[in-house]
Design goal:
Blueprint: H1 3-15, E1 23-27, E2 31-37, H2 42-54, E3 64-70, H3 72-82, E4 86-89, E5 92-93, H4 95-104, E6 116-117, E7 122-131, E8 134-142, H5 156-164, E9 167-171, H6 180-194, E10 198-202, H7 213-221, E11 228-231, H8 233-243, H9 256-270, E12 274-278, E13 282-287, E14 290-295, H10 307-320, H11 325-340, H12 350-359
Parallel strand pairs: 1-4, 1-9, 2-7, 5-6, 9-10, 10-11, 11-12
Antiparallel strand pairs: 2-3, 7-8, 12-13, 13-14
Helix pairs in contact: 1-11, 1-12, 3-10, 6-7, 8-9, 10-11
């Protein structure tokens, strides 16, 4: 299928008044995010900070900043809600965090009745740098109560919701520091035992909990409990290095995206899940016996944070509605690109997404 044919199919899909009804559960993270947009690379910024410190403190003015809702689960919920999907977040935060959620979603039908308020909110300060003609981010995180979130926090009524969902999505394994693996085992295991929907896993960067990665792989990722594993370049390479140590030799000798594709192929041979890889250059679906690769859109990028979350939303919507791999990946790429290229930092509606597809090759 050509991109022109795919875009026509997607235009027809987005023009439908109603798509197939879809109920999605997302958990467990909501972060209060501050995005700091830096016009420097890491070296330049380091020199500026060092200069300020040497004069005993001071300011760097003209630094663009934005306070936003954050966290993988809530960002995916936001993107899906704007695309007309019924989403229920099961997340933890503080009382202030709940009020911020109510404010951010005041004009939507998002069900916030399963937001758990206890202890300290999760907070991220994301430093977005220039890096090799792209934007990259370094996220400074305070996990708050999320670090303690686990199966014990889920009620019987929430397990019932999970049973009846079309997709149950878990995110941010390293952020659920103490019980992340146990949470995935409990939730995905329950679905496979009595549920009807698909399991969707995006662990996010596992490296902050590096020593526990082998346990996660053996007890979750290598089992049949995960239907779809969504990963970026860093995550694909991290996991694949535990399976094939020879992959490390290719890092530095091949473009990073090519190494990531090799890593995804390794994972597809050893994991039961469908591997969905998203990079800044392309996205791909890899199974043990097939692969589909679709290039990303060329856009002016306003931010780096949240690209994968927007991509996941498009991926879930396309999967639920039976789009071909090529069109599903193109839709996911478009949702992410439309979000990243918008100055307002809002996730696109179907109408805005259709306009984006019309105007971009």
């Amino acid at each position: 299928m050509s991109l022109v044919q795919c875009k026509k199919e997607l235009q027809n899909f987005l023009a439908q008044k109603q798509n197939r009804a879809c109920r999605v559960i997302v958990m467990p993270d909501f972060f209060l995010d501050r995005i700091i947009n830096l016009e420097w690379d890491v070296s330049e910024f380091s020199r500026l900070v060092e200069g300020v410190a040497e004069r005993k403190g001071g300011s760097l003015d003209g630094v663009g900043q934005m306070d936003m809702k954050g966290g993988n689960a809530i960002n995916v919920a936001s993107a899906l809600t704007n695309l007309g999907v019924n989403v229920t977040p099961i997340v933890c935060t503080s009382e202030m965090g709940l009020q911020q959620l109510k404010y951010h979603f005041r004009d939507t039908s998002l069900d916030l009745s399963h937001v758990k308020t206890r202890g300290k909110a999760s907070i991220t300060t994301a430093l977005e740098f220039r890096h090799q003609n792209e934007k990259t981010n370094v996220m400074l995180r305070d996990l708050g109560t999320l670090a303690d979130f686990g199966p014990k926090d889920l009620t019987d009524s929430e397990y019932k919701l999970i049973e009846n969902a079309d997709f149950t999505c878990l995110f941010n394994w390293a952020g659920t520091l103490k019980f992340g693996t146990a949470l995935a085992e409990a939730v995905f295991g329950h679905i496979k035992a009595v549920g009807k929907g698909k399991t969707f896993y995006d662990s996010a960067d596992p490296n902050p909990n590096f020593k526990e990665i082998p346990t996660l792989m053996e007890r979750v990722l290598k089992t049949s409990s995960v239907d779809i594993l969504s990963i970026n370049e860093n995550e694909a390479i991290t996991y694949a290095n535990f399976i094939d140590p020879d992959l490390k030799a290719k890092i530095g000798n091949l473009p990073f995206a090519e190494v990531a594709m090799e890593a995804a192929r390794i994972l597809a041979k050893h994991f039961h899940a469908r591997i969905d890889l998203h990079t800044s250059m392309f996205s791909a679906t890899i199974r043990s016996n097939s692969e589909v690769v679709v290039p990303t859109f060329k856009i002016k990028v306003w931010r780096a944070t949240g690209a994968g979350d927007a991509w996941n939303a498009g991926n879930i919507l396309g999967d639920h509605n039976g789009l071909s791999d090529y069109c599903r990946l193109t839709l996911a790429n478009a949702v992410s690109a439309c979000y990243l290229s918008g100055e307002d930092g809002l996730h696109p509606t179907k109408e805005k997404l259709a306009a984006f597809l019309r105007d971009n090759a």
